[in-house]
Amino acid sequence: MFSLQKPAASSSPLQQVLDTLDSVILGKSEQVRLSLACVLAKGHLLVEDVPGVGKTTLVRSLSKVLGLETKRVQFTNDLLPADILGTSIFDAASHTFKFHPGPVFTHVLIADELNRGTPRTQSAFLQAMEERRVSLDGNTYELPHPFFVVATQNPREQIGTYPLPESQLDRFLMCIHMGFPSPQAELELLRGNRMTEDQIPILLDAERVRGHQEKAGKVHCSEVVLRFVQRILMQSRSLRSDFTGLSPRSGLALLSVAQAWAYLAGRDFVLPEDIQAVGPWVIKHRMRFPTATAFDKSKEFLLAIPAE
Q1: How far apart are alpha carbons 15 and 238 in whole angstroms?
Q2: Which of 41, 59, 97, 301 is the most exposed place for a label (fewest CB within 10 A)?
Q3: Are residues 229 and 199 part of one domain?
Q4: 244 found inside a domain
């Protein structure tokens, strides 16, 4: 059966993280767990949705409970690469240029309305995001570890935006949408029956997050799982004449998210069901389906491929 079942976290601290986030983001257990899986897989997350559905709250809550520093950048058409990456300023006292780091030097960066930035700014930011370092004036500055970017886009707004090309979209490990809450969750939200951001406890820190990332990356992928992923890639390449298909990097992305998902479920091995569960969120922004139907079509595509 194709579903995102709530996994039991592999350890008490991770279960506490999940429970805490579920108390803040009501009725969005899938999005909570996918976001945490993205962190464990050392990837970056793209969130496409309308304003006011909890995108920023999710990220701020996740970073706080993990004990990670967070910064936010609002993308506009006049935002420059230096506004994000940093710049070198001449120091008269020492007669040297000193590097002043930009907001990208943090553990968690919220890139709001990424598609409102110009292609030049988008490209510079996404290159630093992928390489996890900033190169300026012949010097290289490493970004903190862990480093996690959550970029948001409003798919319904087109005026004044610069859609990301496929090569840039591929740098995001997953693309999720929040959606409106269920009627019951929305009623609880209106009643004020949820934990506020000020009440969120800090349960982990950067060092322990790194430890969980390393453990998740060691989760075993059997030959059955590897061949299943290869069938997905090969099938995508014969799907449509206007689409070249999923790249090998897409296959690696599927495996890394599935490893994190299995780790959250308390397993040291990946099942084909893990690939099916997280797969739509990994491939939906890579398959070039219309935004409104991308998830459903990605899900249908995966269901049609035999797991064994």
Answers
A1: 41
A2: 97
A3: no
A4: yes
* CATH code: domain of residue 160: 3.40.50.300
Q: Which two structure tokens, joined as six digits, stand for 116? A: 């409102």
- Distance separating alpha carbons of residues 201 and 184, to the nearest angstrom: 25
Whether the CB-CB separation of 55 and 47 falls below 8 Å is answered with yes
**pLDDT per position as a tens digit, 21-42:** 999 999 999 999 999 999 999 9
Tell which of 192, 215, 238 closes a domain. 215
The reply to whether 301 falls in a domain is yes
DSSP H or E run through 45 = strand 45-48
Tens digit of each residue's pLDDT (9 = 90 or more) over 116-144: 999 999 999 999 999 999 998 889 999 99
Among 171, 199, 215, the domain boundary falls at 215
143 and 33 both lie in a single domain: yes
Q: What is the predicted pLDDT for the residue at 11?
A: 47
Q: What is the mean pLDDT of residues 41-62?
A: 92
Q: How far apart are CA 114 and CA 265, in angstroms?
A: 32
Number of Cβ within 10 Å of residue 35's Cβ equals 23
If one counts the domains in the chain, the total is 2
Alpha-carbon span 104 to 70, nearest angstrom: 10
CB 282 within 8 A of CB 254: yes
Residue type, 140: T
Considering the domain architecture, whether residues 198 and 85 belong to the same structural domain is answered as yes
Q: How far apart are CA 98 and CA 87, in angstroms?
A: 8
Using CB atoms within 10 Å of the CB of residue 190, give its burial: 0 to 12 exposed, 13 to 18 middle, 19+ buried: exposed
- CA 186 to centroid of chain Cα atoms: 25
State whether 303 and 164 are in the same domain.
no
Residue 3 lies in a domain: no
Tokens of 1: 């059966």
Rounded CA-CA distance 259/216 in Å is 6
- Give the structural domain span for 226: 218-308
Helix (H) or strand (E) holding 152: strand 148-153
pLDDT for residue 161: 87
Q: Note whether 223 and 203 are same-domain residues.
A: no
